[in-house]
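Team,

Forwarding the record for the chain on the shared tracking sheet. I've put the sequence and predicted structure together so nobody has to dig through attachments.
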Amino acid sequence: MYSILYILSIMRYTLFDARGGLMSDKYLIYNRVKDLRNKNNLTQEQLAELVDVTRLTIISIEKQKYEPSIGLVIRLAKVLGTAIEQLFWMKEEDE
């Protein structure tokens, strides 16, 4: 597992892999936004309002189609009550 700062430093060149994860070179980026949103009994709309984005942004993040900014990652972690590293992580493609 890699630190969030390392993850964010390589997120510039993003493609999607066949499994739905974001792929930067040989790294796949995943998140638990949907799981933690449900655990906190929040709708996509409620979470969007709490972190000051649109519902479509939350949908895109949950579907691994959008890479949030560092500021949004921090806000999501705070609202969802978890560490950034527990919310977003990446693995090497071969793992």
